[in-house]
Amino acid sequence: MACFLVSGAEAVIVTAIEKAQEAKENKVPAQGEGSSDTPVIPFSRKLKWLTWMLWGGAVLLAFEHVWHGEVTPWFPFLTAMADPADTAEMLGEMATVGVSMAALITVVWVVMCIVANAIVKRPAPEAAEENK
Amino acid sequence: MTLLITVFAAVIATVKWYTRKDDTMLLGTLVFLYWGASLMWLVDAVFKYAELQAEYFTPAFEDMINDTFLGLSVVALALVIWVVRLLIVDPRGVIRSSLLRKRA
Q1: Is the ipTM beyond the 0.90 threshold?
Q2: What is the pLDDT of residues B27-79, one digit of tens each?
Q3: How far apart, in whole angstroms, are the C-alpha atoms of residue A54 and residue A10?
Q4: Helix A43-67 vs helix A4-27: angle between axes, to the nearest 10 degrees?
């Protein structure tokens, strides 16, 4: 009914955090967590992955809701808002399906960040080949 | 069907991104758009499966056709978003050079 709104709201918040983080990183010259030997992925770049997934999911799901006639271009924009019973059902769906969607994307992003950190820490394929 | 089509689009976009020669096509945008939508539809599918049980896997023919069109439309919409971003960001400078080109 309006489950995409939860991911959309998270996308707005994460985008704001990402922009602030990017500005902070641009002010401070690039510095690694430890020595210059260990490459580090900027946190703003990782946040960008999350924002793109959230925006992508929210926009494409919003399109699906338009397709099914659940979102209209006129007030109140959501057909479920016209009837209190439907509104309650919509809020219930947002709290279950919507929150689960946003949570899954966030969990996948956390896993992506862990894997990405592990990938940049291991030797490059050419170097690994030379060490054999 | 929508989930299936989006997952195929996500996998194809990811393979294209992995085998790219440079980063000037902004394929990462497309990859994240498709995976984000796929994950959200996966959750939707799980909730629908919990509600409908085995009936979920035997949709009516008309519903399947409708879902197929929806899936293809979603793929097209994501492609349009990607193309618009590609033209605006213009990483290869094609738009800029064509706009600045003097007529002979």
Answers
A1: no
A2: 999 999 999 999 999 999 999 999 988 888 888 999 999 999 999 999 999 99
A3: 7
A4: 160
pLDDT in tens, A11-43: 999 999 999 999 998 887 655 544 556 778 899
Query: Which chain A positions have a beta carbon within 8 Å of B34's beta carbon?
Result: 56
Q: What does each C-alpha distance from A9 to A17, A55, A98, A109, B70 come to in angstroms?
A: 13, 9, 11, 17, 24
d(CA A48, CA A41): 12
Give me the residue spans of the domains in chain A.
Answer: 4-126
The Cα A66–Cα A64 span in angstroms is 5
Q: Is B85 on the interface with A (CB under 8 A)?
A: no
Whole-angstrom distance, CA of residue A25 vs CA of residue A92: 39
> Does A96 contact B47 at a Cβ distance shorter than 8 Å?
yes
Secondary structure of residue A78 in the 3-state scheme: strand
Q: Which tokens sit at B104?
A: 């002979």
Residue whose entry in the numeric block shows the structure tokens 């994240």: B32
Question: Are the C-beta atoms of A62 and A71 separated by less than 8 Å?
Answer: yes
Cα radius of gyration rounded to whole Å, chain B: 18
CB contact under 8 A, B39 and A57: yes
Q: Between chain A and chain B, how many beta carbons pairs sit less than 8 Å apart?
A: 74
CA–CA separation, B5 vs B8, rounded Å? 5
What stretch of H or E contains A124? none
- The answer to whether A56 contacts B33, with C-beta atoms less than 8 Å apart, is yes
